Amino acid sequence: MRGIVYKAQGDMQVEEVADPSIQDPGDAIVKVTKASICGSDLHIYNHGEAFGFECGCRVGHEFVGVVEEVGADVGTVGVGDKVLAPFWISCGSCHFCQKGLQTSCVKGGCFGFQPMFPGGGEGNAEAVQGGQSQYVRVPMAAGTLDRIPESLADDSNDMKTLPLTDVFGTGYHAAKCSNVQGGSNVVVIGDGAVGLCGAQAARALGAETVTVLGHHDDRLQIAKQMGATHVVNTKTSDNAGELVKELSGGVGPDSVIAAISSADSMKWAMDNVQPGGAIGWVGMEVLLGGPEIPWDQAFFGNVTLAGGVAPVKGYLPELWEMLKAGKIDPSPVLTHDLAMDEAASGYEVMASREEGSVKVAISPQS
Amino acid sequence: MRGIVYKAQGDMQVEEVADPSIQDPGDAIVKVTKASICGSDLHIYNHGEAFGFECGCRVGHEFVGVVEEVGADVGTVGVGDKVLAPFWISCGSCHFCQKGLQTSCVKGGCFGFQPMFPGGGEGNAEAVQGGQSQYVRVPMAAGTLDRIPESLADDSNDMKTLPLTDVFGTGYHAAKCSNVQGGSNVVVIGDGAVGLCGAQAARALGAETVTVLGHHDDRLQIAKQMGATHVVNTKTSDNAGELVKELSGGVGPDSVIAAISSADSMKWAMDNVQPGGAIGWVGMEVLLGGPEIPWDQAFFGNVTLAGGVAPVKGYLPELWEMLKAGKIDPSPVLTHDLAMDEAASGYEVMASREEGSVKVAISPQS
Known about the structure:
Oligomer: homodimer
Shape of chain A: globular
CATH architecture of the largest domain in chain A: Alpha-Beta Complex
Distance between the termini of chain A: 12 Å
CATH topology of the largest domain in chain A: Quinone Oxidoreductase, Chain A, domain 1
Helix content of chain A: 25-40%
Largest interface: A-B, 33 and 33 residues
Radius of gyration of chain A: 20 Å
Number of strands of chain A: 17
Low-confidence stretches of chain A: none
Order of helices and strands of chain A: EEEHEEEHEEHEHHEHEHEHEHEHEHEHE
Structural class of chain A: alpha/beta
């Protein structure tokens, strides 16, 4: 079969790779109908060595597909079921899985990040290969996989369901962590796919205003399409602070979704969030150099910082309901859909922030 | 009248000071029946110049008493009412007062901290004098003062109600910020008055285990008296990490109350809190040099950081109910009660951490 392989920094290629097989009775094999490239894959593409990636590592952790084969112990899904795999593998039964924090599963790991979660051995989640391929082995399938609701199971809905694997769940996590509620004034920093999804999540949770700050007019247009009430291109305008203050009656936003979580954007969030407000941070930028907290501001302002890697699996029951009810539709973040032969070029599209691009889907079977 | 005055670093004295008077129709004058010295007063005592204090500044922000005189616009309390003043002055009507974050009141300020909240002028909260005195002017009395429930209004209950002005409210804020719930495993770092109150607050909120880490066996005994299920003197034992892991079934505490919030204690909290857990930080230590956040741990562990200066006024309705029902009794933190003549020596008692001392009350009328 074919899959995307990391060759070197700035070089991903589609190659012939080994077919996956059941290695443990808890495994399933999924035939991938649609996959996508994530901002965190771009971190690998741009800084692979910093994360321990070597030539030959397979990548990808966002995919939906059809169960092709199941191990004897899976039980929860069967051959032919349309399924979604959150990017994080989880056993479903440990303390953390039970409390809805599947990203801290004691046996967990992440598809397509082997160098960061090396592990190995039979049934070990950490040894799994990337999902940007035609088939993928899913360890602990009973815990990891979610059956896609019947009304959304047709392949024609893949562009709607696929973002729930990671990017929408991550935006939703940021919205929850930043305590978005009915009537909230919300700012989203970042017009990438997580920011756009965060904006839509905030509206779905009842936010009154959602202002997206970004650097790309084309993406800010998509933000509006996805429910943002206001957008500011902070490259060409310096009124973001004034605008969000005005929108909140002079006190600043209740919630800031720090989609990128760079030091600069976190500082902006601290400087502008309302006293008693919360910053929901979910961006991997913090791993490359996190912000210093201005503790005096945080102390007198009672600012909450909450976030981290999104436990998507725990959110799926409510996200399926929202998707079925038409309250959310994250498909506009998928601006491209590439056949397998062209899939590697999706990295260039995303890395160059090509006009009109946000996020690239891949159709591995075509 | 007499009040405690900052003379120089390490030198507080009782002096004759000006009688307060109504300066604004919203003011009240309170005859103080009991006041107390706070850990933040010790910061003034030890580092006064760092906070801008000069010889002659009056101190004190924890007091209960009887209304002696009211301005024409007060309305909510009258002469003879037994009242409690939270340490933070608040108008009661602005956006932040209405949402229960009175410490961010747009007109607010803090008793006894004039150099940090200089302000001035008629009715300005920032110009108020300290509460460690026989009488005190309370600006915006309608917003600031809470009438003490009748069953607790007798002076004999002052030692129970007085800690609600600040120290118990602060411990309670830390417990709420660290998301203590029924069945939680909680660690409290610090055996000062805030830590001890935090432990009691956590139990009152339903915590299953509350482990207090401190440096003083005598204070840890009081922690037990106030509801701590476990205590560790971390000066003489190095098993705190193991113990709290064991108590939580191997996963670490759900909640850490960082009563001191020093860089070291915040690091311990980050290293030991359970993934998905929360750290409630309320200590002024962060203002003298806050911790660096280990962002990778916070990211993969989804650790929430919440806290700051406690909006005591907002918590009072529930705290009065708890106090009336006997669910809390913070009086054990008040280990001393000094007459006005001896009151300044209370600073030495607290600063030296004299055996058997936690917190000093003052009886200004005796």
